[in-house]
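Why does residue order matter? Because the sequence determines the fold. Keep that principle in mind as you read this record.
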Amino acid sequence: MRSPIEYLIGLLLALAVAGLTTAVGFTRDRSFYPVVAIVVAHYYVLFAAVGASGRIVAIETAVACVFLLVAVLGFKTSLWWVTAAIAGHGVFDFFHHLWIDNPGVPRWWPGFCMTFDVVFAAWMAGQRLTQKRA
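Structure:
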């Protein structure tokens, strides 16, 4: 059975990052959320570089590039694409182990990252909806 601590830390860290970056004003810059999406999507590449083969690095890089492209699309068109990319990455975290065998991924990472991504995407969606009403 998995420990709930990875989910709790993901939740608390996502709320802390979202709250702090909003309070400081980072979220007023259109590029902020796409950059978050790009960085989040590339951690599996890092884990592959640390503990997997070149083939897994290439696979993880290809997957990360899909999220990168959606982040760029969202930056250029609608930040809802970026919200979808971050939330989609959270879903990807949940199923990652079924599709890609990356031995460099820490055991706790998928739960932590899934929680962070989903909470952060929800925060972003809330920000987008609030800005539209204002």
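Helices lie at 5-24, 32-41, 43-51, 54-76, 79-99, 109-133.
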